[in-house]
Design a protein that fits this description.
By secondary structure, the protein is an alpha+beta fold. It contains four helices and nine strands.
Length: 250
């Protein structure tokens, strides 16, 4: 094997950025943080940070998730993970040479889905954190209604939202936005929030309860939505939906 000289190659850093999505007030919302340091000091951005020397990518993403939201992630990253922890998966890699003015930085973005979350608590290196409806973040304008995101985070967020919209068509991932026990109506509102469309309640109920392995009745009911008691369900064992829940054309 010929000798390898590291100095012959340009150095670069690796970060993880998190597209954290939840449904709040019937709207698909993303977690954003206000940067407390340069570059883009004062601008809103996705949460994330540099990968530490001893970490792999999944560990770095799980650490940043815990620091920014207090959430633990599904998967082998940590032992004794809570049964209904947040869904965490790798989204895509972003490596434009000019995406970070400090140096060459490659970001490995991750998608996080979780039920209705409380107000976020900012970490030590950010100037604030909040939930924002995704429609105010991925639009074309740069104003108070559509605050410009730092780096290429608008593109990363848009990719994460589209991933979520596509995956709930053919997988049971929509239940990641729900509490452990939920009603069909609550699940329908998740689909409506993520897709941005209104769905027929009866047709939706027939589809989700008729899809093998999608939902499992708990035997309980709830009146938290008002009106008559509604049957409670939990996520079934299926990960792939057959037939899929196709997104309506708008």
């Amino acid at each position: 094997m010929p000798p390898y000289e590291p100095s012959a190659y340009p150095p670069f850093a690796v970060t993880v950025d998190l597209v954290v999505l939840t449904v709040r007030r019937h709207a698909l919302s993303a977690l954003i943080v206000r940067r407390g340091e340069a570059p883009f000091q004062g601008r809103w951005a996705l949460p994330g940070g540099f990968v530490r020397e001893e970490e792999d990518l999944g560990e770095a993403a799980a650490r940043e998730l815990a620091e920014e939201t207090g959430l633990h992630a599904h998967g082998p990253v940590e032992e004794d993970t809570p049964a209904h922890a947040a869904h965490l998966e790798q989204l895509a890699t972003y490596g434009d040479p000019k995406r970070d003015p400090r140096m060459r930085v490659v970001s490995v973005a991750h998608l996080v889905l979780a039920p209705d979350l409380p107000a976020p608590r900012p970490g030590g290196d950010v100037g604030g954190a909040r939930w924002a409806p995704v429609q105010t973040l991925v639009g074309p304008a740069d104003d108070e209604e559509h605050p410009p995101l730092a780096f290429d985070h608008r593109r990363i967020l848009a990719d994460g939202v589209e991933r979520a919209r596509s995956k709930i068509e053919y997988s049971s991932l929509a239940t990641a936005f729900c509490p452990q026990e939920f009603t069909v109506g609550e699940l329908r509102r998740v689909y409506e929030a993520v897709w941005g469309v209104a769905l027929d309640p009866r047709n939706f109920h027939r589809k989700v309860t008729g899809t093998p392995g999608f939902l499992l009745p708990t035997g309980g009911t709830t009146t938290r939505q008002g009106g008559r008691p509604a049957q409670l369900f939990q996520a079934g064992g299926a990960t792939i939906l057959n037939p899929p829940m196709l997104r309506p054309e708008v």
